[in-house]
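Consider the record:
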Amino acid sequence: MATVDLSRKLSELHDVFSPSEGTRPAEEARDLVVDIAHICLKELPENELAFCCSELFNKDTGILKFLQKAVNKDEFSESKGQMLEFLYPFLKKYGQHLLDHVVDIKNTCLSLFTRDSSAKVKAKTFDVLVQVIKLTSRAPMANELDIQKMIEKYFISLTQPSKLSQTVKHGIYELLGVIAEVYPEVMLPYSVLYTYMLLFYFDLQ
């Protein structure tokens, strides 16, 4: 089973933070993320899927831990972006199996948005967050996502537009729009402000 390799690949991925002499950790991380995505995005029987989910979201050696450890390391920008590109279709494909992990996924994406210096990495968090929002509609853990705090964080960011790339600003507006659709009761107090800022944004295009 290809999934047997997953534990080893994840272990090697975390080893890039303690590189041996002569190695190229950024390139190794990029290649490992590709391998991990290849293993996990194919059609998986139930037992292998359960194993993949357990390994991928292990608190100490999983992919979220990798993203957290790499958040301030610019040399890993490419692999962080690739990891988010993998996480989005994995969530879309197997989302119902990942409900126990959506709060951690959301928190990791917010950390990357706030702390990572790469606009490309920031931008790639939005597809993941959109999928999390859609997935948790009427789900038991929806309250744990603290949607209101998310909304406030992104509105504050939009008041500092010079610090955001156009791609990141577009991602914020798209995410807020999805929140308005899925959690209208939470977004309602911000609806007028959102509409005003959205119109202003498109006037500048």
